[in-house]
């Protein structure tokens, strides 16, 4: 099945410091102040075991307040909260982090959390739209230092030679993988941003998960396991099964490609809707060369503005600029024939695919929530005008930006709460006109408040996944919001329901 992801990005300021105290206790994690919470001596002993790699985590705003021009936030107590908020503190930020450098560090952290019944979270790098790599009162295992990359011409899964592969540590950025790939004449199926995700190469090579061969993981028992379970079955949601040390991925010989970026301006919502329809009508034009494309339609800058922008970024394997220009011409011509649509820029670059997909670091640090649905390809094929109508309704309903959004820190908690619910209450009913009523959603770029997350994120697989989880993680050490097993826990993963 082929489908396109359309995401609605909304404002998100995490709600800090308002974790409710639990009523009953046998079913709660230990937090500072409870009888079972580790004493300072025990934390010191853990620190000694892991060669001093235990750190106290400083909330970013506490740190920022110490910089010149800082001080916008309350420091008594140190807090992530907005200046006028009343519930301030460490917020959702973990208390301690294990800055792991070895597998043994990770095993020690897992055993410590398990023994003392602590809330455990896992973070590497990259985006986290569902708040899965942080939790109040938690112990963080930070895997960003696992940066090994090794190539093999013949990789064996059991006794089977599955060909060329690369093994990457869980802290490796995608950009490093493309650089190393180029040096080795190889390309890996991965995303464009450093946090990986959906790949422009999937029309040619399948999903990134289709190309995953093996994982080294530390499970809840503390054991290091080598697993080659079908990655897609995990349903995304890193941190909900184990701690990944490394992944081995199938790789392919590099090739040349044309990458193009077309940016169009629509002067009003009606023009934006027509543009979305034209894009839908031409979305299959690039299939002849198995191109991948990312497209974004968003309201330009402010709510008051009527302008919208469509950005279409495509990667065409084994084509030249002349060929890709010809492939995109029908779309471009039809777009520019629309009233109130203008070309802002178009850019074509020929070159090695590793260079085309490489992106330098971006400086992000935004308050953002997402909502998304997978749209059946048939909708695009059979009713492209419906796609345009849905964009029109979304834009008319005040959705400022479709697909990508950033915001300032100035919203009140009440505003934030309303915005967090906007996908479910306002946008999803519109989106369902093209996704259908029970469409799935890619769970790493989705709304953590999904009402039916078990089916929306895991389809018919939830019960099976839950049973697997019970076997490998009987104490639910690895719980993430809207992940497998999370229905057994409160919003913060602190108390069982
Ligand atoms: C139970 O846990 C909560 C929070 O985790 C804590 O406030 C409370 O004191 C605990 N009660 C007992 C009896 O340990
Ligand atoms: C862990 O040990 C290191 C080195 O001895 C020390 O610098 C660090 O402050 C300790 N961490 C904590 C949380 O005490
Ligand atoms: C990374 O590679 C180095 C050198 O080969 C090795 O010593 C180390 O154990 C590796 N680390 C991990 C986490 O695999
Ligand atoms: C890519 O294009 C360059 C420059 O035209 C050429 O030298 C190189 O051989 C091409 N690479 C492949 C894999 O075709
Ligand atoms: C690009 O062309 C080469 C040579 O014909 C071929 O071996 C390779 O599979 C093609 N790559 C893609 C991604 O189509
Ligand atoms: C697009 O428009 C240009 C100029 O108006 C024309 O030369 C070209 O043939 C058109 N291409 C297609 C595919 O319609
Ligand atoms: C979407 O569905 C709602 C009712 O479910 C309807 O009111 C609305 O007009 C539909 N929009 C489009 C674009 O089909
Ligand atoms: C009600 C209240 O405390 N308002 C304060 C919010 O923060 C701003 C900026 O520091 C103050 O000027 C207000 O007095």
UniProtKB/TrEMBL annotation:
Transmembrane segments: none annotated. GO terms for molecular function: FAD binding; oxidoreductase activity. It comes from the Eukaryota. Residues 90-254 form the FAD-binding PCMH-type domain. Keywords: Oxidoreductase, Signal. The keyword Oxidoreductase applies. Residues 1-19 form the signal peptide. InterPro entries: BBE, FAD-bd_PCMH, FAD-bd_PCMH-like_sf, FAD-bd_PCMH_sub2, FAD-linked_Oxidoreductases_BP, Oxid_FAD_bind_N, Oxy_OxRdtase_FAD_BS. Belongs to the oxygen-dependent FAD-linked oxidoreductase family. This is FAD-binding PCMH-type domain-containing protein.
């Amino acid at each position: 099945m082929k489908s396109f992801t359309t995401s609605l990005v909304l404002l998100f300021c995490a709600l800090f410091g308002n974790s409710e105290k639990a009523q009953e206790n046998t079913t709660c994690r230990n937090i500072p102040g409870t009888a079972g919470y580790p004493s300072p001596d025990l934390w010191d002993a853990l620190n000694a075991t892991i060669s001093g790699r235990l750190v106290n985590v400083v909330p970013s705003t506490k740190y920022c307040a110490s910089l010149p021009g800082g001080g916008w936030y309350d420091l008594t107590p140190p807090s992530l909260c907005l200046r006028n908020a009343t519930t301030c503190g460490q917020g959702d930020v973990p208390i301690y982090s294990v800055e792991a450098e070895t597998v043994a560090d990770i095993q020690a952290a897992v055993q410590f959390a398990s023994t003392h019944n602590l809330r455990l979270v896992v973070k590497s790098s990259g985006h986290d739209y569902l708040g899965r790599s942080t939790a109040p009162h938690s112990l963080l295992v930070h895997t960003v230092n696992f940066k090994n990359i090794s190539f093999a011409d013949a990789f064996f899964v059991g006794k089977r030679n599955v060909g060329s592969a690369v093994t990457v540590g869980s802290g490796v950025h995608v950009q490093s993988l493309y650089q190393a790939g180029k040096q080795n004449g190889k390309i890996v199926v991965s995303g464009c941003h450093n946090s990986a995700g959906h790949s422009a190469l999937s029309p040619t090579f399948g999903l990134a998960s289709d190309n995953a061969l093996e994982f080294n993981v530390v499970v809840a028992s503390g054991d290091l396991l080598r697993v080659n379970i079908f990655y897609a079955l995990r349903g995304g949601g890193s941190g909900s099964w184990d701690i990944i040390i490394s992944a081995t991925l199938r790789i392919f010989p590099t090739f040349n490609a044309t990458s193009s970026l077309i940016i169009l301006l629509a002067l009003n919502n009606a023009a934006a809707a027509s543009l979305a329809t034209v894009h839908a009508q031409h979305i299959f034009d690039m299939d002849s060369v198995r191109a991948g494309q990312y497209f974004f339609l968003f309201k330009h800058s402010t709510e008051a503005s009527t302008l919208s922008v469509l950005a279409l970024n495509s990667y065409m394997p084994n084509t030249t600029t002349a060929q890709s220009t010809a492939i995109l011409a029908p779309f471009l011509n039809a777009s520019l024939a629309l009233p109130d649509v203008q070309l802002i820029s178009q850019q074509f670059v020929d070159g090695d695919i590793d260079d085309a997909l490489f992106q330098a670091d971006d400086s992000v640090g935004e308050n953002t929530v997402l909502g998304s649905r997978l749209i059946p390809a048939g909708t695009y094929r059979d009713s492209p005008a419906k796609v345009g109508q849905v964009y029109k309704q979304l834009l008319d309903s005040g959705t400022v930006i479709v697909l990508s959004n950033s915001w300032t820190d100035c919203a009140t908690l009440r505003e934030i709460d309303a915005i967090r619910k906007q996908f479910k209450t306002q946008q999803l009913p519109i989106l369902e006109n093209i996704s259908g009523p029970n469409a799935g959603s890619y769970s790493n770029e989705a709304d953590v408040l999904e009402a039916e997350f078990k089916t929306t994120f895991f389809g018919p697989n939830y019960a099976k996944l839950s049973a697997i989880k019970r076997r490998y993680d009987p104490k639910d050490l690895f719980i993430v919001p809207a992940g497998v097993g999370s229905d057994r826990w409160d919003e913060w993963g602190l108390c069982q329901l």
